Amino acid sequence: MFIGQRIYVANGIKPLETRGEVSAHLGQLTKIASCDLYKVDALTHSIPYLTPVANTLLTDIGTRFQQQLREQGYRPHRIIVTSVLRSADDVKRLQNTNSNAIANSPHRYGTTFDITYIRYDRLSRNGKPVNNNKMADILGSVLSQLRKERRCYVKYERKQHCFHITVRK
Length: 169
Description:
The protein is an alpha+beta fold. 31% of the residues lie in helices and 20% in strands. It has four helices and eight strands; from the N terminus they run H-E-E-E-H-E-H-E-E-H-E-E. Strands 2, 4, 5, 6, 7 and 8 form a six-stranded mixed beta sheet that branches. A two-stranded antiparallel ribbon has the order 1-3. Helix 2 (52-71) packs across helix 4. The longest helix is centred in the middle third of the chain and has 20 residues, at 52-71. The two termini are 18 Å apart.
């Protein structure tokens, strides 16, 4: 077991074999839904649940991202969550199309989520226009600060165009 794995095993749930098992873990998980801070994308290989501490991290990322846009005078946008909790069945299906998918994925513990860095959801036309590259820089800065605060691990995934984020504590 490597160090990162210890973190998500310690902070997460017992991995699900099927999506139907999520009901047995509802006391340990929070269902996430699109809100003012982030949009949950159409999830094809995961279900919208996180541990409470991972949910708090996601909320803080969305809050800080929007705060940075506001401080720089840009139009408000939401980040887009593209993957959340996966069952073993989800991972098996995903392995057919995604070379990054592994059997013991941190997504199986409810401690990890992905945020795309190439798409954002505009909330209003108020403020200066901002392009996706600038928003990716802002999102990267927010994630870098949270890493320095020792709140998460972040992996930049080039092929999947997302930040893979795992809560630390």
